[in-house]
Amino acid sequence: MRIVMIGPTYPYKGGISQFTTLLSQELEKKNKVIFYSWKKQYPRFIIKNQTDQKLKRNRRAEFVLSWSNPFSWLSTAVRIIKQKPDMVIYPWLTPFHGPIYFSINLLLRIFSGKSRIVYVCHNVMPHEKRPGDKILTKIGFMFVKNFIVHAKEEEKTLKKIKKGRINCLLGFHPLMEVYKTKEYSEEEKNKIREKLGISNNENVILFFGFVRPYKGLKHLLKAMPRINARLVIAGEFWSDKQEYLDMINKLGIKDKIVLVDRYVPNDEIADYFSIANLVVFPYESATQSGPLQIAYAFDKPVVCTSVGGLKDVVKNNITGYLIRPRDSKAISDAVNRYFEQKKEKEFSDNIKEFKRRFSWENYARLFYELK
User: Fold this and answer.
1) 103-136 b/e (C-beta count within 10 Å ≥ 16 → b)
2) What is the pTM for the complete model shown?
3) 92-111 pLDDT, tens per residue?
4) What is the third-level CATH fold of 177-357?
5) Strand 146-149 to strand 167-170: parallel, antiparallel, or no bridges (unpaired)?
6) Which of 13, 63, 152, 292 is the most exposed place for a label (fewest CB within 10 A)?
7) 316 forms bridges with which residues in the sheet?
8) Are 347 and 319 in contact (CB under 8 A)?
9) What residue segments make up the domains of the chain, in order of their start?
């Protein structure tokens, strides 16, 4: 097939950029892939630091789209039409891009009607909803009949918004093994722990990724007084950091917290997962989770709330524990049971077998089903 990919790629940071880049690389193994990316993806008032300077620019992509320049939407559509693609793939994440995708898709509908347009829906609707989201999503979904979603609940949400006949496939978030470039020796792990002020005999639990309200960090913090372990919080705060700092002080758990309050670049991600005994996902809502698939890539067991598509990825008492959302006692009970019953090796061994189903090769097959 001849495929056009539209979306963020390196040096843009974040999970969607990583996902889209890795997907394009997988599809390139059997197809001709043309990649069009963003010159400007969002205004600065939405995201200030949008790129990671440590990431090399993806030379296979052409950076042509700008959210603020409608002429770039037109020129991108013309580029796509000239390619005569069999399939055009977009990552759908935010209603903000709805009018942009609508404009491109309208021209494709008129001048390239045989091209199959596919949306990979990371979130059909955003976690933090804003006025106008629903109408912008409906606009963005016009002219599109092919969707891949990552949770059964998302399929239901999609069908409420997109009326009529659609072709919707249930997918999954593939493994993020790109970060696992080597096996860490115990000496290397100890040096990382020392750098973070953690002693070698302490249990370490990890919360990783952008800190946003729906990810439920506050519930994990409320559980920490009952947990005998160090919590490493590694990620950039997208909401009021002071609120979390005040909670840490009020709960008297400052000595249990290691706060790495910045965006963690790709070349440092392995450091944090290598020293973790357990990774915790106290999410209030979710479709899928990139950090969860990073944890699996490192064979790290998880404690995870039973929300969205996460309950389809975590096997309770096999690869970790599934718990109720918004329940700090459920978090502490699960974490304490994990350490008291010494489940780390058992769960880790289970993950090595279980995670094979989440390969990028298996994910790419979904697009061939849409042919």
Assistant:
1) bbbebbeeebeebbbbbbbbbbbeeeeeeebeeb
2) 0.87
3) 999 999 999 999 999 999 99
4) Rossmann fold (3.40.50)
5) parallel
6) 152
7) 320
8) yes
9) 2-171, 177-357
